[in-house]
Write a structure and sequence with these properties.
Keywords: ATP-binding, Nucleotide-binding
Strand order of the largest sheet: 2-3-4-1-5
Family: Belongs to the AAA ATPase family.
Number of strands: 5
CATH topology: Rossmann fold
CATH superfamily: P-loop containing nucleotide triphosphate hydrolases
Strand content: 15-25%
Distance between the termini: 42 Å
Number of helices: 5
Helix content: 25-40%
CATH architecture: 3-Layer(aba) Sandwich
Protein name: AAA+ ATPase domain-containing protein
Oligomer: single chain
GO molecular function: ATP binding; ATP hydrolysis activity
Number of domains: 1
Length: about 160
């Protein structure tokens, strides 16, 4: 490792980062691009996950995939773990006794990993997620301590669009 990189890594280890960031807004407004730019501007390794690709047809496979992703992120720290379209795996849990289904188990695994990702000795993993359906996300996911920072991205208005073009 270069001395410069070791110095940057040491500096990053002293900075308190939020537990997670959620970009939300209508389709096509640049949420994914903003998350990728965040990783690029911070010069951190980024584990990029399309949330729907986590789903597995075998019992326990999806939960194992989530645990594996967080394990990789902790090993690569400091890094960014990015979930695109997180609503595919973190939608509201049912209120009519559906707590045993696959999606509830998957969400529970995700919440447990989010709780442990920046615990003592495991710091410097920033979890970033994007969705265009924030109202469909489970309330436990977006509470403080998990994806606590919410950033709304809107498409440009007419004047901004002209300026861009």
């Amino acid at each position: 490792m270069s001395t410069e990189f070791q110095g940057e890594k040491a500096l990053l280890s002293t900075i308190s980062i939020p537990s997670g960031v959620l970009f939300y807004g209508p389709p096509g407004c640049g949420k994914t691009m903003a998350a990728l730019c965040l990783g690029s501007s911070l010069s951190l390794p980024m584990i990029n996950v399309r949330a729907a690709n986590v789903l597995d047809k075998w019992l326990g496979g999806s939960e194992a995939a989530i645990r594996s992703l967080f394990s990789r992120a902790r090993s690569a720290a400091p890094c960014i773990l990015f979930f695109d379209e997180i609503d595919a795996i973190a939608s509201n849990r049912g209120t009519d006794g559906e707590s045993v289904d696959v999606m509830s188990r998957l969400l529970s695994t995700l919440l447990n990993e989010l709780d442990g990702v920046n615990s003592e000795g495991q710091a410097n993993v920033l979890v970033v997620a994007c969705t265009n359906r924030i109202d469909d996300l489970d309330a436990a996911l977006i509470r403080p301590g998990r994806l606590a920072e919410h950033i709304c991205l809107q498409p440009p208005d007419e004047n901004d669009a002209r300026e861009i073009l």
